[in-house]
Write a structure and sequence with these properties.
The chain has about 140 residues and is of the alpha+beta class. Strand 3 (about 40) and strand 4 (about 45-55) form a beta hairpin. The protein is built from four helices and nine strands, in the order E-H-E-E-E-H-E-H-E-E-E-E-H. The protein has helices at about 15-25, 55, 85-95, 130-135, and strands spanning about 5-10, 30, 40, 45-55, 75-80, 100, 105, 110-115, 120-130.
């Protein structure tokens, strides 16, 4: 059965530093789709973050590339299997050079935290009680 995938393309300042950051979070780099201009970060079977050097990213758009440290251009939200896994991933990111973003959200049935990666892109990590989703 076909599963639709998402490829999030993000401009980065230092490809090697960004690759190191995401591998420290536990993700892998797919060498088949990586080179000196881009790195394919496998987040899951259906989610891939494509880290592109800014000159390479610019070949895909005629728009100005946003400085994600100053403006918000995207919020990438990832699910987590538990509250503990939210904390684990965000804490790893912070230990690897990310900065906290926003405030912890604890609504009981939903828990989330966020961080800005090395280039300022915001990643939200969220757990939602499966019973609340069904309800």
């Amino acid at each position: 059965m076909y599963q639709q995938m998402i490829f999030v393309n993000l401009p980065v300042n230092d490809l090697d530093a960004s690759k190191k950051f995401f591998t420290e979070l536990g993700y892998t780099i797919n060498p088949q789709f990586s080179d000196e201009k881009a790195a394919s970060v496998v987040i899951s079977d259906t989610i891939v973050a494509m880290l592109l050097t800014k000159p390479f990213y610019a070949t895909f758009t005629e728009k100005e590339i946003a400085d994600a440290t100053k403006t918000s251009e995207v919020l990438v939200a990832l699910s987590a299997e538990s509250r503990e896994k939210v904390d684990e991933l965000v804490d790893k990111a912070l230990a690897s050079g990310a900065t906290p973003s926003g405030h912890t959200q604890d609504l009981g049935f939903m828990y989330g935290r966020a961080f800005d990666d090395l280039d300022g892109h915001t990643w939200e990590v969220i757990w939602m009680d499966p019973a609340a989703v069904q309800g």
